[in-house]
Amino acid sequence: MFKYRFSKFFFWSLSSLIVFIFFIFLFRSSISPYISSMTSTTLSTFDALVSKPFTVVKETFSTSKDLVGAFEENKVLKKELRELKNNSMDLEKLKKENEELKGFLKADLSAPFQVMSQSIVRTPQLWDESLVISSGKAEKIKENMLVTVDSALIGKVTSSTLNSSRVDLLTNGRIFDLPIKIEDGSTVIYGNLKSFNQEKKVMQASEFNSNDKISKGSRVFTSGLDGETVADIPIGKVVYVKNDDDKLKRQFDIELDANFSNINYVKVMGKQ
Any bridge partners for residue 240, and if so which? Predict the structure, then answer.
């Protein structure tokens, strides 16, 4: 009985296998391309899905790298632009200083004592009042020595330390009482330089020794009659005359020669 069942099972199993193999060979040509195509499509889709994040990361990294490169290039260009601008400003400053120095070389002023110095401190708050120069007692600078720019008077030394001095400018409004002379052709009168009129932008003078006629445009110089200051330093020209019967009360307005807007180098002059 057992042998009969086993034989029957074996027979049907073998028959089923033969039928299966037959169908495989029968439909091989049509089934295989379909399976192959389906497999290829599936694999391609899977590969695209897997590779997509990596592609995005790669593109993002490339874009970031380009941005970093552009940023660094921008920094370099900005630095070069700043350096170029600074160099241009330095060049203009040197040109102006050279022009000032040339003016000093052309100035034909004689004095027993002359020292070239540089303006080192001039604040906006005291722009019209004073400045500090880089020469002091070590260079034998003394109080009341006169200070010029391009041969024109700008003020006088009022105090000194070892290596610097304070210069009070003519434009500060204080009374200077500096002895002067006014030349009108062959006529020469003497008086005192007083103070700067801020409203009229002129220097005023009075206490003259004569009532001789003086014309507008007459030249004004230091006289040196105080026995301390240097004579013949140009100050300016007469622009207004107010006569008075009392010669001491005559008043002249004087337009200053010096340019006070930009002072880099000065010359200190004395009788030492």
Answer: 253
pLDDT, tens digit, for every residue of 71-125? 777 877 777 777 776 666 666 656 666 565 555 555 557 788 999 999 999 999 9
Q: Which residue in 159, 143, 151 sits closest to 116, CA to CA?
A: 151
Looking at residues 252-260, what average pLDDT do you find?
97
Chain centroid offset of residue 183 CA? 44
Distance CA 81, CA 51 (A): 45
Q: Give the 3-state DSSP-derived string for the chain, with helices as H, strands as E and coil as C.
A: CHHHHHHHHHHHHHHHHHHHHHHHHHCHHHHHHHHHHHHHHHHHHHHHHHHHHHHHHHHHHHHHHHHHHHHHHHHHHHHHHHHHHHHHHHHHHHHHHHHHHHHHHHCCCCCCEEEEEEEEECCHHHCCCEEEECCCHHHCCCCCCEEEECCEEEEEEEEECCCCEEEEEHHHCCCCCEEEEEEECCEEEEEEEEEEECCCCEEEEECCCCCCCCCCCCEEEECCCCCCCCCCCEEEEEEEEECCCCHHHCEEEEEECCCCCCCCEEEEEECC
Measured distance CA(18)–CA(22) in Å, rounded? 6
Cα–Cα distances in angstroms (integers) from residue 183 to residues 223, 232, 240, in the given order: 11, 11, 15
What tens digit of pLDDT does each residue of 144-163 get?
A: 999 999 899 999 999 999 99
The pTM score is 0.64
- Compute the chain's Rg from CA coordinates: 50
Neighbours of 207 (CB within 10 A): 17
